[in-house]
Amino acid sequence: MAIDMLGKRVKRVEDQRLISGAGRYVDDIKLQSMAHCAILRSPYAHALIRGIDTSKARLMPGVLDVMIGADIPYNPLPMAWPAGGSAGLRNNVNTPRALATDSVKWTGEGVAAVIAETPEQALDALEAIVVGYDPLPAVVDAEKATLAGAPQLHENAPNNIVFEWAVGDKAGTAAAVDAADVVVRQRLVNQRLIPNPMETRGDIGLYNPGTDEYTIWMSSQTPHIQRLLLAAFVMGVPEHKIRCISPDVGGAFGTKIFTYADYPIVLLASKRLGGRPVKWIEGRRENYQATIHGRDHITYLEVAGKRDGEVTAIRVKTFANLGGRLSTIGPGIPTTLYARVLSGCYRIPHVYAEVVGVYTNTVFVDAYRGAGRPEATYVIERAMDLFANEIGMDRAEVRRRNFIAPEGFPYENPSGLGTASGGAKIYIDSGNYEPAMDKALEMAGYAGIEKAKAAARARGKYLGIGQSSYLEVCGVAPSKWIGAVGEGWGAAMWESANIKVHLTGKVVITMGTQPQGQGHETTYAQIIGHELGIPMEDIVVQHSDTQGTPFGYGSYGSRTSSVGSTAAIKAAAKIREKARRYAAHMLEASVEDIEVEGANYFVKGSPEVKKTFQEIAFALDLAFDAPEGMEPYLDETAYYDTPNCTWPFGTHVALVEVDEATGQVELVRYVAVDDVGNKINPMIVDGQLHGGIVQGVGQALWEGAVYSDDGQLLSGSMLDYAIPRASWLPTLELDETVTPSPVNPLGVKGVGEAGAIASTAAVANAVNDALKPFGVKHLDMPLTPQVVWKAMQSTKGAQA
Amino acid sequence: MIPAAFDYVRATSLDDALKRLATAGGGAKAIAGGQSLLPLMKLRLARPETLVDIGRLAELKGVHRLPDGRVAVGALTTYDEMLRDPILRHYGLLADAIPNIGDVQVRNRGTIGGSIAHADPASDMPAILLALDAEVVARSSRAERVIPITSFFEGAFASVLHDDELITEVRLPGGRDDVGSAYRAIEQPASGYSIAGVAAVVGAHDGTGWRYCAVGVTGVGDHPYRAAAVEKAVIGGESLAQAAAHATDGVTVASDIHADREYRTHVASVQVLRALEAAIARLG
Ligand SMILES: Cc1cc2nc3c(=O)[nH]c(=O)nc-3n(C[C@H](O)[C@H](O)[C@H](O)COP(=O)(O)OP(=O)(O)OC[C@H]3O[C@@H](n4cnc5c(N)ncnc54)[C@H](O)[C@@H]3O)c2cc1C
Fold first, then answer.
1. What range defines the domain where residue A689 resides?
2. Angle between helix B228-235 and helix B261-282 axes, rounded to 10 deg
């Protein structure tokens, strides 16, 4: 009898291989006669290219080929998600070419590629390439880039503006702000981050001259999308002539969604070498310079309301730094995924947001874990604290007053989620915010916090507490929403699953989604084991290869469990239905009389007259006894397009202690109560929360990508970019409430991003709270000892 | 992250190593644990033509007491070996500092000789050796000389060591019972190196005041230094807090994206105070 594992803390089946070094990442793949590629990157943030002399490099030992921009016959990389939704809106689009031709726009933009017998030789030859640059003045700050006199990056983008986009009711919001008892204004910087997956990117290109087909192994979250984009937009090669394979992917956090210059480079290089495979593996410094960064917003916030705690309006203007050229969905992040969810879990009647997308001499910015929603949560959760402090009301009480009530669903927020142009109505379908908040505050000892603060003071420490009550848009998303031009990327967002049952009853499920360490091989097996009544061990989960997996849009936006899993359940239902029909045939009963319990198919009322799933699979595979009209074999594919997103929520609470002498901040406790709906595997949910929380804490306290004014990346390696270490963190205290999502049969919501969305604001709020005795109202992140200490100095004596 | 091509030889003896360095005329570099040299080579910031591997020279390893009571630490002694050594266990400031240097791998490979030869302005060991008034024994194929640590460092990544010289040994004063020592640092979170690291040795209280005080500071100036003004103030009877305020007297304080001059100046004083207090607390 199979044991049903759905909802259990099952150990991850992929860990044996991934933890013991038996995983197979791109760099583990070594093909016969493989050559190696290295990319020369611009040392200037902004320069014209006068000329490139590759003659010496070509003569270096082992060098097979050198390519510069002019050698590449392809189009620039695509930009798939313009800001849109309002009439007359223009996106001034400039995307990178595989290699820059006339100019470079950031330090790290690729200008030449060497192909050599070994990686060492390729790197040696890079040093022999001579590039003539005419350096130009650079600008790295999004707000400054829009000012008169700023260096200009692109002719088609006056004042470096990619787009000026707005959402919400401008006049209504202005009126509400004007009429408010209290208006708090604050400039907020959501600093630029470097995502840092453990595995950097990399790829192997292989051209087959016999069939004129291309294969690329890529560390990607989206092999199917990459095939589509490379075929249709970059290379002009028919889609069926390209095969994309993502082997094990060692973390991604969004960075591996996109189309990168190295994809066409390795494919073209292989073709030019007559079909030798060409591998490119990104170094860590290269990853810092040339793979997308995240966040980087400057926001002017106004929050307006009444003295009784009701928030009546939020108005923001955000400058979103998109880098020197646009990444694949760069403009979509600060628009659709940020401004449209600004009001979070609050019922704020008036919201108006202006977003200015800006070019600067920095690497492109795109989706990083949470993608827009951490930025939105930071704004609204800082707003709640600022407003509460201004009116002298308890910060939790202000939130309580403004939560969307449990009976207030479905809720259409005022920043336009529900009115997306031409698309679906997206509305918040469910939620129950107070119980999660109350539980978190209770766990954190909120009621006794003043005593704890006094005790800390006696030790020379300032204790602060901060909360973040977040709302996430998960399970991105319905095709009719994200597919609407101007709202999303003009393409669909459904998912797929295929289930095949071998003669022995063993099951292969093949997914269109693409794991990067989340444990899909485990969770899909739990779901399908439950659906078909068979043990997980009888199931293998396959993915990652456009040859053999049904088309899928990949894994990001916490969409796999809600969208992908539902496709899998639908495929399993089809399998079950066919098995049932065949069982009826075997048992000489009518289909209506066959009942299914786990793996047993029996005649209603007599469970002993049964066929097992294995017996049915065996017979259907051999099929010599199949009834007229029934196809042999159990093999079913299903596609699923969700009608709505899912809406996880929760409250996180952070406690920090600030050392008065040095400004050092210690995170002393972290409590998280999350409502992610039902859980397929609570252990994996915990793991996702742990990682996400820590990444968000990293932003609050330590991380920050720093460019010098002339565009050099000063935080250019792990020596200068501080990723959180386990020893800096307390044990994370997790708990839950469970409000199942109504849109999918499992009632799951997704959890890949929740931690990162919530934690930054919780910790920032805690540090600002700790500094209240110094008169500090707001500090920008990262809240390093220097930042904190200086704030304590500048306001010393403001309040005893 | 792949170094430029280089030749590699493993030295068979100290003399062999010195001969090879002498004949290479600056093109060769010794490699001990490789924890500083290899990262530089991978970034192609260092490009030695030849690496002379001294890592297995037994004659440069180990800790022993000299006849005069001082303690000799072989240049190739690793952090981990220092931490476990029964003689060095006596030095409170080593026990404070070493567990926080790098990670397990770095402590298993990194050596005391490599740390000081590299002369990183933010390394921890130099501050400790400064506070201990250590001596560095350097040898070339020409001669051996003893360099007081106080005149060893000249600037960022610069010391008085010649290209053809190797450090063979570091000599520490024998432990004395009437002083206490401690090390306190505030770390730059990404690298783990010190923004301000302070080694203090204080003691010999004669009933009226401290008669002995030595303070080594790293991470603050362009090279690790002795905070002479602090020492003078402590011995002169100023309060520890007053003395600590002199932490950066006469020093051009460094500034970078992690800590600007103002903040670094401030935390240098805080760490001096904390190291002094901790050293005194150790006196019991
Ligand atoms: C991840 C990481 C973290 C680190 N964190 C810290 C930290 O927190 N604090 C800190 O202080 N240090 C830190 N370090 C640096 C580490 O302490 C030094 O790299 C190490 O001590 C150097 O010793 P080594 O034997 O590895 O030297 P090597 O790298 O082998 O050599 C360094 C230099 O010294 C020269 N050299 C080596 N031995 C001799 C000798 N006997 N005579 C003359 N010249 C010699 C070499 O030619 C080379 O120029 C860190 C290093 C790493 C990689």
1. 294-478+644-794
2. 40
Do residue A317 and residue A343 come from a single domain? yes
What is the number of domains present in chain A?
A: 3
| CB nearest to B190's CB, from A120, A718, A786 | A718
Give a yes or no: residue A166 inside a domain.
no
Q: Which of B1, B257, B270 is the closest to A283 by Cβ?
A: B1
Q: What is the token pair recorded at A354?
A: 């202006």
- Tell me if A128 is assigned to some domain: yes
Assign domain B58-172 to a CATH class: alpha beta
Please give the model's pTM, rounded to 2 decimal places: 0.96
Q: Report the atom number in ligand 1 closest to the C-alpha of B122.
A: 11
Confirm whether A799 is domain-assigned: no
Omega before A782 within 30 of 0, i.e. cis: yes
Whether A493 and A222 have beta carbons less than 8 Å apart is answered as: no
Per DSSP, the three-state class of A799 is coil
| Phi/psi at B133 (5° precision) | 55, 45
Q: What is the pLDDT of residues A107-151, one digit of tens each?
A: 999 999 999 999 999 999 999 999 999 999 999 999 999 999 999
Distances (CA, A) of A193 to A376, A778, B188: 16, 20, 18
What does DSSP assign to residue A537? G
Query: In angstroms, how far is the first alpha carbon of chain B from the final one?
Result: 50
| pLDDT averaged per 10 residues in sequence order, chain B, 284 residues | 93 97 92 97 94 96 96 98 95 96 97 98 98 98 97 97 97 91 97 97 95 98 98 97 98 97 98 98 89
* CATH number among 3.30.43.10, 3.40.640.10, 3.30.1360.120, 1.10.3720.10, domain B7-53: 3.30.43.10
Q: Is the ipTM of this complex over 0.90?
A: yes
Same domain, A278 and A305: no
Based on the fold, state whether residues A129 and A272 are members of the same structural domain. Answer: yes
Class of domain B179-281: alpha beta
Classified as helix, coil or strand, A616 is: helix
Does residue A677 fall inside a structural domain? Answer: yes
Question: Residue A650 and residue A439: Cα distance in Å, rounded?
Answer: 10
Cα A332 vs. chain centroid, distance in angstroms? 12
Total Cβ atoms within 10 A of residue A703: 28
Find tokens 């002017």 and name the residue. Answer: A300
Tell whether A723 lies on the interface with B, counting CB pairs under 8 A: yes
Q: Kindly tell me the burial class for residue A212, based on how many C-beta atoms sit within 10 Å of its own C-beta (0-12, 13-18, 19 or more).
A: exposed
Distance between CA A187 and CA A383 in Å, rounded?
Answer: 11
Band of pLDDT at residue A492, cut at 50, 70 and 90: confident
Kindly provide the residue ranges of all beta strands, DSSP E only, lying in A122-277, ordered along the sequence: 130-135, 161-168, 182-193, 202-208, 213-218, 242-245
pLDDT > 60? residue A421: no
What is the whole-number distance in angstroms between the Cα of residue B39 and the centre of ligand 1?
10
Residue A1, pLDDT score: 41
Domain edges within chain B:
7-53, 58-172, 179-281
Distance CA A582, CA A318 (A): 60
Are A370 and A394 found together in one domain?
A: yes
Strands annotated E in B151-282: 153-155, 158-159, 166-172, 179-187, 194-205, 210-218, 225-226
Ligand 1 pocket: which residues have CB below 6 Å?
B 29-37, 39, 75, 101-102, 106, 109-111, 113-115, 117-118, 123-125, 166-167, 192-193
Which atom of ligand 1 sits closest to the CA of residue B165? 43
A207 and A354 share a domain? no
Cis peptide before A477, with omega less than 30 degrees from 0? Answer: yes
Element (H, E) at A570: helix A565-587
- Of the candidates A574, A605, A640, which is a domain's last residue? A640
Identify the CA nearest to B98 among candidates B113, B118, B78.
B78
